[in-house]
Amino acid sequence: MNEPTAARGRDVVWFTGNSSVAYSLDRGRSFTILDPSTVLPDAGLGFCCDQEVAYSPSANLFVWLSQYWCTVVPPAGHHGLPHAGHRIEPPAHRRRQP
Predict the structure, then answer these.
(1) What 3-state class would DSSP assign to 51?
(2) N- or C-end of the chain: fewer Cβ atoms within 10 A?
(3) Is 37 within 8 Å of 51 (Cβ atoms)?
(4) Where in 1-98 does DSSP place strands (E)?
């Protein structure tokens, strides 16, 4: 397993590697291993490689980022691979009022 990341929130530990993911509900004493290519729908894209996981204590939320192969060709004049961005917001009742 290359390039591992791990995050812990309360009793839960989440681990990712290039092509693996596992979680523990007992602070890391035992793990359940999953195939990351089958956990989330991939919209027809193939599971690629790198993954990251982080935990937000203030939101009690794990954030899991997985890369997929993209068949989109960048427009002329643009170099490199297309990028995807995600924004995660708390539920409306938890947002701070201005």
Answers:
(1) strand
(2) C
(3) no
(4) 5-9, 12-17, 20-24, 32-34, 47-56, 61-68
Residue 89 DSSP one-character state: -
Per-residue model confidence as pLDDT tens for the chain (98 residues): 578 999 999 999 999 988 888 999 999 999 999 888 777 766 677 777 788 899 999 988 888 888 777 666 656 655 554 444 444 444 444 444 44
pLDDT for residue 78: 55
CA triple 51-94-9, angle to 5 deg: 40
CB neighbour list of residue 15: distance below 8 Å, 6 or more residues apart: 4, 5, 6, 21, 22, 23, 24, 31, 53
Beta bridge partners of 9: 12
